[in-house]
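Hi R.,

Here's the input for the iron/sulfur cluster complex you asked about:
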Amino acid sequence: MKTILTGDRPTGRLHLGHYFGSVENRVKLQNDYDTYILIADVQALTDNFNNPEKVRKSVYNLALDYLGCGIDPKQSHIYIQSLIPEVAELTVYFSNLVTVPRLYRNPTTKHELLQKKEVFGESGEGITYGFLGYPVSQAADIACVNSNLVPVGEDQLPHIEQTREILRKFNNIYGETFNIPEPVLSTSPRIKGLDGNEKMSKSLNNCIYLSDDADTITKKVMTAVTDPDKIRKDDPANPDKCMVYYYHKLIRNKDVDTVCEECKKGERGCVYCKKELARAIIEFLKPIQERRKYYEDRPEEVEKILKEGTLATKRKAEEVMKKVRKNMNLDYFE
Ligand code: TRP
Ligand code: SF4
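And here is the predicted structure with iron/sulfur cluster in place:
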């Protein structure tokens, strides 16, 4: 059976962008692959090193979001990155195989650096060794379970490309050791925000979280950007210029064709349309939230799932590292 590794940084709750961009895809894939889902607390610390409580709290919330979405602990190993020391070891070996200028060129790292001015300075001059190097540690996450596939959102593609480069180089120097992993994008790898921004993102404050309650969802949907040329209720409009329509499509509202037609003909008011969308999103999230609540009420069960997932990952990583040390001539007392 082929192996999947993927995961997220625990820095807050998951939103619809995560769900449609990647998590939904993982839920499907877990049936057919040996699946490892990492909660990347070490990586989260690279830009939250001065806020460890936030990371700690988010680990648990991320686990609840995963379980709510249908990541099945019987099929997938959900694990905590910091509890796998093999990843730290492999990161050190990999760090010889990537140049510092190459790390600086990674567009995702660059972008995040400038989003984090309060940590790294106005123009990123305070960048740390740890933050610059996190894609190396991400390569180690993937390599530690010798993964074949990595289902992620579009923003992660530069990291997977960098992983592939590092692993190819490793195989060339030390002999065939690792699979060269492939990224797997979902059908909608990047989800726009309610404000029409290209990306739904916490820092842009344009998200609907999977755990938002009905009132919050309704309030947020009311702020969504619609076709600016539609002024009156019965003006015809272009749904393709409207985030409300975009979300009707995204959550696969069965009435989406009616929405489109009525909007074009001027037979639909935006307030009504938004209320309908809010209801549809609430309905869509209901089973996710119910499952999340089940686990929220059973913290011991969640802890057991994380412990078992971590143990299974550690076993796999130990096996991979045996081969790594042997191929690198580091198997001293074997
Ligand atoms: N970089 C990912 C994020 O920001 C998290 C992550 C860490 C990851 N290691 C990974 C994703 C390995 C896929 C594979 O959410
Ligand atoms: Fe958007 Fe609906 Fe208004 Fe059309 S009627 S512009 S789809 S909110």
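One thing worth noting: Residues 195 and 213 are 20 Å apart (CA to CA).

Cheers,
M.
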